[in-house]
Amino acid sequence: MNPPEHPLILVNDAARWFDVSIPWLDRVIHRKPRVTLRAVDGVSFHINKGETLALVGESGCGKSTIARLLAGLYQPSHGSIEFDGQTVQSMSRKARHAMRKRLQMIFQDPYASLNPRWRVGRIIAEPLATHTRMTAAQQRSKVDELLAQVGLDPNDQNRYPHQFSGGQRQRISIARALALGPEFLVCDEPTSALDVSVQAQVLNLMKDLQRDLGLTYLFISHNLAVVHHVADRIGVMYLGRLVEVATRDDLFANPRHPYTRMLLGAIPDLTGAGRARVPVGGEVPNPLNPPTGCTFHPRCPHANDRCRIEAPATLSYGDTKAACHGLEEGRI
Q1: Coil, strand, or helix at residue 185?
Q2: DSSP code at position 51
Q3: 14 to 20, 45, 223: CA distances (angstroms)
Q4: Closest by Cα among 169, 212, 226, 188 to 105
Q5: A GO molecular-function term, please (predicted)?
Q6: pLDDT band, residue 253 (cuts 50/70/90)
Q7: Alpha-helical segments (H) within 6-135
Q8: Per-residue pLDDT for 271 more than 60?
Q9: Which uninterrupted H or E stretch holds 54?
Q10: Three-class SS of residue 12?
């Protein structure tokens, strides 16, 4: 699926590398080279206005790093990120400040993302105090409105975070993220710390807010059952790279990449299509020393010599994009 003429988010060959070397003096003494972790390594995708793109994959594959790149918490090592047609890296400080009102983030752990010493009203009003000229009375009124919007009582703004359940705390986090009227929310595993029954309530709230407010989501998760419920399109990541991007229905009905098939083989069949399980052995390689060629080849039952030497290009297969020599050669 090619990007539309004006996607809200356009990521082009973005990478984020981290220097994880031991201290300089120790490197000199012990003659150790620099060590670079390629957490995200040449990723390209787009997100249309009003849709939800989900990123899935095993822990450590780079999902959260992409979330922080889009939220502006990290800068890309190379490549570009565009927000509504503007390249973020080339924005002026004033333009970037204005962009932050349109882009907010919901973090994974509502126990850690809320200041335990602040009352809820102050937590939700913090973006208003920072980015607007609202009076204290106007802020309180807006906080009342936001609490009601996420299904909480306006009187809750006088309580502390520890007085709420996990699901209620995540609703508070969502209210804070909505305070400035953003268009785009980066959701980094927003329900993984919650009980299953509470997850469903929060996910339904997020879908209702998306419908009512016209929000666009990047939804990070390792839970394919959750992703099936919320996503319009899904990107599958492995060792810092996107190996497949497809619509939700196409990905669950006809997964192309062997890694995608492995992930789907680990969950109950949600489509009723009687999909066979595809067991793949092995563990994720050390990201500090990834395999040459296709990084998935040590675990792939279809790998050949080309897979071990040459990194696959991302090609289109209808509305699906995938990076796999086996698909390109018609072996899969």
Answers
A1: strand
A2: -
A3: 19, 9, 24
A4: 188
A5: ATP hydrolysis activity
A6: very high
A7: 24-30, 63-71, 93-102, 120-131
A8: no
A9: strand 52-56
A10: strand
N-to-C CA span, the chain? 21
For the chain, which residues make up each domain, given as ranges? 234-331
Residue with tokens 């052995």: 281
Q: What's the pLDDT at 280?
A: 56
Q: What's the whole-number mean pLDDT along residues 121-148?
A: 95
CA-angle at 102, arms to 101 and 104, nearest 5° = 80
pLDDT in tens, 50-76: 999 999 998 889 999 999 999 988 999
Rounded to whole angstroms, the Cα distance separating 240 from 65 reads 9
Q: How far apart are CA 182 and CA 111, in angstroms?
A: 23
- pLDDT score at 90: 87
Q: Which two tokens stand for residue 294?
A: 């296709």
pTM (predicted TM-score): 0.90
Q: What is the DSSP string of 203-245?
A: HHHHHHHHHHHT-EEEEE-S-HHHHHHH-SEEEEEETTEEEEE
Amino acid at 214: G
19 contact partners, CB below 8 Å, separation of at least 6: 34, 35, 36, 37
Q: The tokens of 323 are what?
A: 């990076």
Counting runs of H as helices and runs of E as strands, what totals does the chain give?
Answer: 12, 12
Average pLDDT over residues 178-201: 91
Six-digit token string for 322 = 């995938």
